[in-house]
Amino acid sequence: MSERLVIIGAGMATGRLLDHLIAEAPGAFDITLFNAEPRGTYNRLMLSPVLSGELSFDEIVTHDEAWYRRHGITCRFGEWVQAIDPARQVVIGERGEVVYDKLVVATGSTPFIIPLPGHDLPGVIAYRDLEDTEEMITLAERPDARAVVIGGGLLGLEAAAGMAARGTRVTVVHLADHLMERQLDGPAGRLLQEALEARGIEVLCGAQSREILAGDDGRVRALQLADGTELPCDLLVMAVGIRPSVSLASETGIETGRGVIVDDRLKTSVPGIFALGECVEHDGALFGLVAPLFDQAKVLAKTLRGEAASFVNKEVSTKLKVTGCDLFSAGDFRDGEGRDSIVYSDPTSAIYKRLVIEGERLVGAVIYGDTNDGGWFFNLIRDGADISALRDSLIFGPAFQDATPVTPAPALMEVTA
Amino acid sequence: MTQAKSACQIRSTCPYCGVGCGVLLKPDDKGALDVRGDAEHPANFGRLCSKGSALGETVSLDGRLLAPQIQGQESDWDRALDLVATTFSDTLAKHGPDSVAFYVSGQLLTEDYYVANKLMKGFIGSANIDTNSRLCMASTVAGHKRAFGTDTVPGTYEDLDEADLIVLTGSNLAWCHPVLYQRILATRKKRPEQKLVVIDPRRTASCDLADLHLPLALGSDVALFNGLLAEIAKRGLVDAAFAQNVSGLEEAIATAEGEDLSVTGLSDDLLAEFYELWCATEKTVTIFSQGVNQSSSGTDKVNAITNCHLATGRIGRAGMGPFSVTGQPNAMGGREVGGLANMLACHLDIENADHRDAVRTFWDAPAMPDQIGLKAVDMFKAVGEGTIKALWILHTNPAVSMPDADRVREAIKGCDFVVVSDITGATDTARLADVLLPATAWGEKDGTVTNSDRLISRQRAALPAPGSCKPDWQQITEVARRMGFGAAFDYQSPAEIFREYAALSGIAGGFGKDFDISGLKDLSDSAYAALRPTRWPVSDGKQGGRFFADGAFFTPDGKGRMLPVTWKPPVSKVERRYPFRLNTGRIRDQWHTMTRTARSPRLSAHYAEPFLELHPEDAAERGIGPTALVEVTTPHGKAILRAMITDRITKGDVFAPMHWTGENAPAARIDALVAPVTDPISGQPESKGSVAQIKPFEAAWYGFAISQSPVKATSDYWAVAKTTAGYRVELAGRETPEDWLKEARMLFDMPEAEAQTMFDPAKGTARIAFHQDGALVAALFISRKPVAVMRDYLSHLPGGEAPQVLSGKSPADQPDPGPVLCSCFNVGVNTILTAIETRGLMTVEAIGEALQAGTNCGSCRPEIKALITRAKGKEAAE
Lengths: 417, 878
Prior knowledge:
Chain B: GO terms for molecular function: 4 iron, 4 sulfur cluster binding; metal ion binding; molybdopterin cofactor binding; oxidoreductase activity. Chain B: Keywords: 4Fe-4S, Iron, Iron-sulfur, Metal-binding, Molybdenum, Nitrate assimilation, Oxidoreductase. Chain B: This is Assimilatory nitrate reductase (NADH) alpha subunit apoprotein. The complex is a heterodimer. Chain A is of the alpha/beta class. Chain A has three domains: 171 residues, 3-Layer(bba) Sandwich (FAD/NAD(P)-binding domain), CATH 3.50.50; 115 residues, FAD/NAD(P)-binding domain, CATH 3.50.50.60; 82 residues, 2-Layer Sandwich (Enolase-like, domain 1). In chain A, 23% of the residues lie in helices and 30% in strands. In chain A, the strands form eight sheets. Chain A has a five-stranded parallel beta sheet with strand order 5-2-1-9-21, with no helix packed on it. Chain A has a five-stranded parallel beta sheet with strand order 11-18-12-13-14. A five-stranded antiparallel beta sheet of chain A has the order 23-24-27-26-25, with helices on both faces. In chain A, helix 5 links the parallel strand 12 and strand 13. The mean pLDDT of chain A is 91. Chain B is α/β, with parallel strands linked by helices. Chain B folds into six domains: 56 residues, ADC-like domains (N-terminal domain of TfIIb, Single Sheet); 272 residues, Rossmann fold (3-Layer(aba) Sandwich); 187 residues, Dimethylsulfoxide Reductase, domain 2 (3-Layer(aba) Sandwich); 117 residues, Barwin-like endoglucanases; 107 residues, no CATH class; 58 residues, BFD-like [2Fe-2S]-binding domain (Arc Repressor Mutant, subunit A), CATH 1.10.10.1100. Chain B is 30% helix and 19% strand. Chain B has a seven-stranded mixed beta sheet with strand order 5-4-16-15-14-6-7, with helices on both faces. In chain B, helix 16 packs across helix 18. Classes of the chains: A alpha/beta, B alpha/beta. Strand 25 of chain A pairs antiparallel with strand 30 of chain B.
């Protein structure tokens, strides 16, 4: 008889877990899948092209209903899980209980909403799911639509760019002094800002929000900044970060910190209960990028089947595309004692690269505009390779590292024997 | 054949060394010139060297002086010539004839020379006209006169074909007279028994195929040849019959026998081998050049050589004789026409009253000096002291090329009135002129030159005179007219001047002089235009041929003279403060002060910056690495040069090329380091015998730049070279500027443009490029260590798309050709090395077949061979 496996949350990590289980242990589990969103798994990273109109929603669905049906998975979509009773090994949903032998908590993350006055007004949204996306799409149908995005990180900029592409006038309000400060340094952030401004997006950095103002209709009317500036808007998108969704787990008595705490095999503190994805905290780390989530899914598939596997949180690099601007960052690129930077700048081609070096080893890299060599830099960071011999040509990438020696022999070559 | 043979090809003569190669010129309608060797010219039979082959690249009008200038302001001929004439006349009137001087050049044609000499010696009344031939040939002139009674080259180039032994002494013939060297190699191919001996402190390219190389101590030639003379006497090889026509034999031999041969630094075995070869080979030609001449005992060296030939009677017969090869296209013409301060004209002597009277009568001259004038070094001393107050410099660059050049530059700068005739205003000397006169350049000039084997050849104009440029003879005659000497200078053409000159030589012939071309005095204009290469003398008595086989010399007693000469060390003494001996000279692809050759990208690619050859042990002792810059100091000046560490040079000696100037490498004006010491007889400077200290140049930074346009460098060290795409520059400095971007903007004059940059401040690395409309304009590479980039690859990038220029490297699919070795076909060192390594091409011929390298002029063949040898050595070591 198959083991009863219940999974809460049908995000991208779950999708990958299911792929592994179906492929590697078909029929081993009797699977029930809860999802608060009234739909199955789609590629959340691709919401931006849906927003900008490049793709339709159908095109980003990874597991459709037919797929679940084919693999005999019981889907309970659009249903919130009320509680978990570990003693009885049941999950209590809005529409009834399900017994599990093994339970996977994959509740993902929740957008962080700054508790500004007016944050709960209609017209204030996050950018997390299809509903948010659809609201932004609908907005553009209004003439002279205006939107404000709080947060100049990846998500906020994608929202801004997507809305702008549909004709909405967008202002990005960002607290730090340059965009994407966790991925980019100042010069790269400013290049990105210039590129966005060239697309008609207004960007205000170092801008502190004070209050969200309501209009006569009770909807959002404007964002007021600390300096008193009012930015009129019909929609306000708050994209200032995400938090792991841990409430269900903590209410269940599972140990949580910032996320649901798991060991290397993705086991939580409660026997039979595992956790996966953005809700997880592993060895103090949280996860927002897709690559480690897929690693987790692979490990968890083995753990569920009783095979030995262990999750290792590897160094990650970020290769991003924000509305046609290629960005890359990896490692730790902060300035500091004992750290040197090699900086390449080509304003004409809008290319910027900074490599951070500590003790003749590459520790960080930021690239704007030409990210082809990102992987190569990432490997150097990960491997801790000694770059002293390559230093002068390092920033130009692997194409310029062939074996041909460049002698400094100036204009002369001593040839007569 | 005549000029008319081919309507579109003009026969002329190469303007570089004294080989005097015939060239065929074919101008196109865009002002460019196709240059080929003239197969019918007896000096080269069609062959040209790398410099001659690249002549077409040097005729563009970039940087040409096209109009007269007065105090840096453009003027017109009338005003400029009036000012020159008035100032010279006033100076004469106020301070006498010796307060003015002409300093002229082996670049002048014989006709130019003739009128300059006539004006100075016959009308101004001073002998203060000297030529830059003083710097290269004066000791030969003096030695010839002492031995033969006249300045006569006894033999001809055919002797090189017929000799069984050729001795090169003080001559890097492979680089400095490549066509003659190739002629010898061709002979050796036909007659492998012909032997070649090279006597040179350095192991030069000429040693490549030599049977014997004697690396004698610098300046010890007299001892070496005295040893030879003593050996000749000891073996009883004195030609008793010929000795009837020679005086001074016993004394010379006795003196030679007393010589201490240890000063040559050569082993007894090496000496014995050379002496045996020389003694046993009757058909011996001893070729000598600047290594002999540029010495405080240059004249004695020449006579130590002529002594050996006179004692054995090996002179003036086929395949034997002492043979001076000259450095300039018309050094010989200048010697013949009286361009030197101690000659009159046509080998007549100023101090001989009969000669003076004859010339005065012939010229109907109002004023003639009865004493010799100031030779170059003394002339510029007098300029510095203010006794010479008006100076006219024609086609030469003494602010660079004179010894103690910084002092000479100061002297010219301080002179009351300086006129410079040249083809460009961009020379160290021209920049000091009060009046600049634009002259016609080689491709535009019409007249005659004489080469090293007495062949008078025509230079013919192939291009029109640009702007308001005038030939030098016209400039001189117009000044003469304005000074009131119109009747004597009423020439309409070079042919007219030549006829007068030929007629005057007849008078010289009447005095029993060798130089007599009176047979040409009635040459019609058309015959002059069509004149074929003609060896002097051309008189009723004698036509061309060799001199002295008959034992008839031009001394008062008609005998050849042997001189008792003894070795004297160079005047400057090596001491603790200056422990090195500084040798100077030429490189393969540059000429003099580079005003012409530096315009050719091909020629500039061989050695694109000035350097100092030093021995590996000397370098190691002083901590000088293979890419370091070296600071060279002598009691007279300083220079910064790139180290070239090589065991071709003797420990304790250093060698630097003489070519670089304030225009292209202001820290490398090598003659600023040379002591103004001269040979007491010839007045020729000891350019190869100064003493020096060397130490590493303490550079805080090094730079390399490429640019489409000229750059404005100001650093402690910089050297610029022309490339096909613009310019390349080496830079270095003692202090690091704060803002490299700002420096780059100044260097390239790009105050506004957006810059592509790469900075690694912790390592002192900065790379900056400017692009315009997608094309690279300029780039600068800075490093705390000598810059490691693919220079030769980068050098061709300006003007094209080069988004990755700052990498300093070629992408893997575009190999770096390396420094150009074969200038004729533009083949780089790396290309050749790759062919050796990957295709196993192990002979110079195989390389030539595959890459064409070395198949035209052949002057790079020794270097190709060296690369193969090196590759073989590497293979063996592996």
